[in-house]
Each structure stands twice: as C-alpha cells, then as structure tokens.
Amino acid sequence: MDRDRLAQALLATFLEELEGHVVSLNRDLLALEREQGTPRAPERVASLLRTLHSVKGAARAASASLVETACHRLEEVLEPLRDGRTAPPALYEVCFAAVDALDDAGRRLGAKQELAGSPLEALLPDLERAASGTPAAPPHAPPPPKAPAPQERAPADAPLPPPPPAAGETLPVRVSAQKLDALLYRSGELRVAALRLEGRAETLETVREELVRLREVVRGTEGETALRRAESELARVARELAADRRTLGGVATTVDDEVRRARTLPFVEGCAGLERTARDVARAEGLQVRLEIHGGALELDRSLLQSLREPLLHLVRNAVAHGLETPEARRRAGKPEEGRVSLSARLRGNRVEVTVEDDGRGLDLGALRERARARGLEAPDDDSEAARLAFLSGLSTSAKVTEVAGRGVGLDVVRAEVEALRGTVEVSSREGQGARFTLDVPLTLSTLRVLLVSAGGQTLALASEGVARLVRLSPDEVREVEGRPTWVAGDALVPLASLADVLGLPPGPPRQRRGAVVLEAGTARAALVVDEVVAEQEALVRALGPRVRRARHVAAAAVLPDGRLALLLNPASLVRAAGGRPSASLFPSPATRATRRRLLLADDSPTTRALEQSILEGAGYDVVACADGAEAWERLQASGADALVLDVEMPRMDGIALTEAVRASPRFGRLPIVLVTARGRPEDKARGLQAGASAYLVKSAFDPTSLLETLRRLL
Asked: Is the pTM here over 0.90, yes or no?
C-alpha cells in the first residue's frame, strides 16, 4: 500500500474511533460533574485520561496534530482532579466545549477540510489558561487562535499496542452501517424471492390438478397414458420445488435474522448525547436535571435507533425547557431541587414502546386551550384530548421564544417523524406531577406484513399491525353525528369515511353492503370503507424518493412478492383525516317520492322550535311542531310521519325515551330519528345512538345546512 493510501486508511480508522471516544468523554464528564467530591470522582478522571490518551495516540498516527495537541492540553486540565478535588463550573464548560470541538474536528477531517480556523484551534488558548489555573475566557467567545506548539508534545505518551487475544478469543471486526444496510436489503430480497417461489409451487400444483381432471375425461383412450406420465413428472417437480422452497425459506429467514442481529445496538447507545443535551438545556434555563435510562440493554435495530434520535432529542429538550420547574419552585412544591427526566424502552410483541417522562409541572392545558381558541381551533373539554393539542404546529405554551422553546415546532416534528416510522405518539399529563410521551414504533423498518386493499382503482397497502378488524357495513349500521358518518361499535363511536375520498381518488359505486378496515393509531380509531380487501402477505418496505416523500397519507412503498409496488399508507394520518370528513355517499340512495315529507319536530324551547320549524318548512318539509316528547308520541301514533327531529331534554318524555319507544314500535321502528341537543359529550352521543337515533347533532355547533343534509340522506 502506498503512503497516501495508508494515510487515508489511518485517518478513516481514527475518525471511526473518534466518534465513540467523543461519546465516552461526554459520558464521563457528565458523571464527574455529578459525582465530584465523592469517592468515585478519581475513577471518572482516570477513565477520561485513558480515553484522551487513546485519542491523542491515534491522532498522532493519523497526522491530526491539532487534535493531538488539544487532547494533551485537556489531559493537563484534568490531571489535577485525580486527587478528588472539586473543580469550578467554568472548568467543566471549557472541557465540554473541548469535546464538542473534537467532534467538530472529526466531521471536518471526514469532509477533507482543514482545521485552521476551526473551533478546536480557537479553543486552545482557553485550554492552556485552564491548565495553568488562569480563569478562561467563555468557550463560546474564544480569543484569537494560537498555533499549537509541536515541541510541547509528550513522546512518552505514545499509545500502547493492544494486547493479543486470549486463546479461543477473536478480535472484534468493525463493519460499516452502510454495508450492513446493503446486506439487509439483499436479505429482504431473498425473503421476497422465497415467497415468490411459494407462489410458483402453488401454480404448479394447480396445473397438476388440471391434468388429473383432464385424465379423468380421456380415461380409456390412448392419451390417458401420456397424461399419467405428465402428471407423475409434474408431481415430482412439485415435490422438488416444495423442498427447494422450504430450504430457501429457511436460509432466507436465517440470513435475515443474523443480519438483523448484527445491526442491533443497545437502546442506551441510541440515547448517547441526550444526557449532555439535558444538562446543557438545564444550564441555559437555570435548572437542575438528572437523566435516567431504563431498558438500556434492549437490543434494537440500528436504523430504528437512528430514526428515533431526533424525536427523542426534541422530547428531552421539551421536558427540561417546558416541564421542569426552577429549584426554588420545586422546593416550595416539596420536590427535590433536581428534576428528573427518564427514558425507557420495552418490547410489546413486534413493536417497541419508548417513553419520555418528567416529574415537572405537567402540561399547561389551560394555556393550550387558549392558544387553540386564539387560532380558531376547537378546545376540547376532555383533558386527554386537550393534551394532544401540544402536537399542533405553531402551538406553544412558552411565554417567550428562546433557543430551546417557544416556537411551537418541536412536538409537531416529533409526531411527523414517528408517524413516518409507521408509529404513533401519545401524551398524558398530571398537573404538578409531570408529563409522559409514549412512542410506539415497529420493531423492524425493512419488512412487514401488509393488508392489501382496493380503493379508487388502486391497490394500496396497510400495515397489518395497525388494522384492528375488518367489518362489512349496511346502511342501518351507520349513524350521523354532527353531519359526519359514524359506525356504532358497541359503546364506542368510530368515525367512518371512504378511503378513496380521503386519498382524493375516484369513488367506487355505492353498494348496499360495504367492506371497511378499522384502523388504530394509539387510542384513536377510524373505519375506512374500501372497494375490496385483496390479500394479506409479507412485503419489503422501501423509502419513497424525494419527489414523493411528502405525499399526503403515504409512509413508504411496499414491494410485493410478485414484484409489484403498492403505496404503504400512514394509519395515524388516515385516522385523523377520517375523523374530520363530512358525509360521503357510501350507500345507494332510496328512490325519492314526489309527495312532501312530513316531519315531527319536538323541542320544549319555543324559540328553538320556531327556528327549526322555519328552516325545515323553508326546505319544503311539512312540519308538525310539538312542545315535548309525550305530545310528539301522541301525534306520531295518530297521524304518522316520515322522520322525527327531537330535542333530548324535554318534560314528560325526553328525546331518549321517545326514541326508544319509536324503535320498540313495530309500526314506526324504522323511522329516521335526528337528535338535536346541547349535550355534546361523547357519552351523551353514545347514549343517543344506542337508543336508536339515526343521527346526532350538537346545538353548539348547529348549522342549518348540516340538519338539512342529514335529513336528505336519511330520507
């Protein structure tokens, strides 16, 4: 190997090692700052000096002289702390700044940039002053750079060669993430090939069965012998193909498992740098914080951990900047002055649940509601629904804009990035006790089981793990709540929408019974009507190109065993979209009659009754107005009606009781009933629909158009 290639190889090895050393330096500096003055402090200093010694020697071998000099100066800064003495906060700021500068230097060298004028060069005077005991200038405003002094290097600090491996022990081999990603891609293709071979075997078996039927037709003729030989040969080929399929499937699964195992890292490694982030944000805000990690030994896919880094970074910063109180406020509340932020990970089947929790003040739900109303948004009364407002873009409860808070973008980014992983994020909060964010993501990002559906002439894929159930709906199983179609599933109200309508695809023809897929995204559910459920099978997941990466409701592309591509839809995005859509024509409309429709209107408020009567008569209906439910029941029995529009709270007989009486009547049991009431809580809506109401409209959001549209659809 020539000199240039050797230098490049040494530099590449050094940069790969430097990345891990920076993590170690940050970890040990944080621990030393926390444990200074304790018996463990000298051990932390020794660990820091060992790491710096390794970096310095490797930098010398890679001819990175500036890095070597900086490490030597940092050793001189830390050496006096071996005896357990306490260092001033300014010293730690210089040390952390030096570690950041080393990290920056590694990136510059990797991009083939010079280190002249870099933060590392600018920081050398600060390190020299700190080593001599002179107060250092603030690390973020370094004095003019000073060239390193090569003559001050310590030749005696050359790195020691690694000890030889013990008998039977092998040295670890570094494999780049890119090579492992490529290997995983190929192993995924191998699994798809095995699935495709399974389809070929089934096709061959079908051909053999056709030959058997044909042989029965020509029994007793000369061709029977030839057909029998062909059938026997096909049976042999089918057996061999089945054996090959089993072998290939076993090998593909084994290779896939081994590659995944090689790609895994402990969860704690994916959290590297978060403790430093929490510490820096706390310092900037005048807070104290301790970051705890639980489930750190859990092995997770490297690409999953990499994809979770940004969401976890946002959540940790948010927990410190928004969640934790000042030490004085915590002391008054009976809490320790040091706040706590904890990260935990655990497996749940083929998914991973990651939580970020703090013991701070909790979400300011009142402020969230105020900000939502100021933007013209609905402010839910339910606390759990109000907490989800925190995920809306531009909605922040911070009173001022700082470097870490107040712009209202952090949690919106978290939700978008987690949903891009086919995951969900939920939040819960307790006033004065803290907030918890729960991320639920798939264990693997490369392959998954998908449900293929047809909608608007397209074949689309839904991750099977997000499908709660499949249902077939008829018109009498669908109700309208505030102008939106709703499926009543037991005691729950599930928003209903056409998948083609949500995606902007051409609608299919209305049918008397419609297939629907019930999707789950966290605690939310929605039923999406589809034209057909095609199949369920294993698929390879591929990222979308930059031109379609932002396609609405689309998460990725699914490569099917036959080589076709299907768009993989985002369940959380679909559930949100389904919940806010107006009614669409899902079922055939009954033939209209030429006569005017007769409506029974019951409301105990004369003003409301007159208003609704005017609206309905203006739309061409013949309206019979009643003062309460008892009068309406009498009028219905005497003269009949085509539909009922009822208030809920009325004297003598309320709207719920009247609805139950109508549904129990053999004569009027199928009449459309629309409840128009001020009661808007979910349990009130559920009670009305369970009583048999066809639609439920809330007066606070009353819109004459929605009432008329609802009646038009029902009639």
From this structure: no
